[in-house]
Amino acid sequence: MGNVSDYLKWRGDLDFIQSPFNEIDNLILAQIAYVDLADIVPGPGSEEGITLSEASDTFFDIHDEKEIRKNKSFISKAPFLMREAAGTKRFGSLILTNYVDYVDGGKEEQFSAFHIRLDSRTTYITFRGTDDTLVGWKEDFNMSFLSPVPSQKDALKYIDTTVSRPEGKLILGGHSKGGNLAVYAAVNVRPSIKKRIIAVYSNDGPGFDKDFINKEDYISILPKIKSIVPYGSVVGMLLDHGEDYEVVKSSQSGLMQHDAMSWCVMGAEFEKEKNLSVKSRKLNKALSSWIENLTYEQRAEFVDTLFALVSASGAKNLSQISTDRFRSMNAVIKSFRALDKSERTMILKILASLNGEIGRAYKNGE
Q1: Could you tell me the maximum CA-CA distance found in the chain, to the nearest angstrom?
Q2: Which is higher by pLDDT, 358 or 2?
Q3: Is the whole model's pTM more than 0.90, yes or no?
Q4: Alpha-helical segments (H) within the chain
Q5: Most buried in the list 105, 283, 308, 349, measured by CB within 10 Å?
Q6: If phi over 0 gives left and psi between -120 and 50 gives alpha, with beta otherwise, what is residue 168?
Q7: What is the DSSP letter of 45?
Q8: Are residues 315 and 181 both part of a single domain?
Q9: Containing domain of residue 206, as a range?
Q10: Packing angle between helix 341-364 and helix 296-311, nearest 10 degrees?
Q11: Has residue 319 got a pLDDT over 70?
């Protein structure tokens, strides 16, 4: 079975005129959004751009490759994918512009996006998914009770302020939360921009609440949404979806299938599965039922308390927790014991309800 790297070797010598933009190209650009291109790609308001080849060379000039490889999360692969793509005729000359990237702990927001000009008439706007920061992950959890979250608001604002030309085709996309932001922005953007959008790619991106997917603006954009999820998807099946989704094979198992670099490629398409795995369907059924049985207030209190416990370790990102698990766990346990009785009871009760939903889903089958 092939992968994205195999695709670049096979299709990299053809430009987008010779071989039209496809779903694999979309995923490559969505993954490059995870690369820290601050001070490399010009920001909004600048009339200048930089080619992907130039951006890649500059990135590796100022970042130590050994340090990059120390990061064991899936986003650590993004710089190397960028370098591989930058070395091809297909991607090397693409122009990158309008780069923004920030994490705001006070607003509980992590947001990054930029434009990638495919040709004189078409631009792909890529939104970064959840990175390694705890702030980013907490914002994802906040989606279960808050709509819109800050990054969704900023995704819409970003499109409104950076799409200045009155003509040209637009493709929006992202992986994980980035896919959610792409859909949110496409649904809510002003009509003059919306009519220029030809596709919206959500690569294993979570959904929305029921009110959102019943909106007329959402329903009108449905034909343009291309939702892609791996065989064992969990993240991409969270909350509600109105669109159909394409299920693809992965070389990984379980939650690790969220790593889009593991998705299997055949030619210019992903290798397809007929349906999600039985395990994925059961787990998603349990998670959906669990979330629906909690009020918005309960969800908010649970998320705030849970992340307060995790933050007690002093970690700012998931990698710091995983590299010092013993110290982190001790800090979390100590913080849990310091909670008042009602907070401890709430956490244990909600976790018990999740365990019960999972047990029922697996016992009852489909």
Answers
A1: 66
A2: 2
A3: no
A4: 4-11, 23-32, 52-62, 65-70, 78-86, 89-92, 134-142, 150-162, 177-188, 191-194, 210-213, 216-221, 278-292, 296-311, 318-323, 325-338, 341-364
A5: 283
A6: left
A7: T
A8: no
A9: 4-276
A10: 110
A11: no
Beta bridge partners of 127: 113, 174
Task: Retrieve residue 165's tokens.
Answer: 């030309």
Q: What is the pLDDT of residues 128-186, one digit of tens each?
A: 997 766 776 777 777 877 789 999 999 999 999 999 777 799 999 999 999 999 999 99
The Cα 187–Cα 221 span in angstroms is: 6
User: Residue 191: is it exposed, middle or buried by C-beta count within 10 angstroms (0-12/13-18/19+)?
Assistant: exposed
The chain-wide mean pLDDT, for the chain, equals: 87
pLDDT of residue 156: 97
Q: Among 276, 302, 323, identify where a domain stops.
A: 276
* Alpha-carbon distances of 278 from 82, 230, 366, rounded to whole Å: 34, 13, 8
The identity of residue 174, as a single letter, is G
- The CATH number for 107's domain is 3.40.50
Instruction: Quickly list DSSP for 210-265.
Output: HHHHTSHHHHHHGGGEEEEEETT-SGGGSSB--S-EEEE-BSS-GGGGG-GGGB-E
The reported pLDDT for the residue numbered 364 is 67
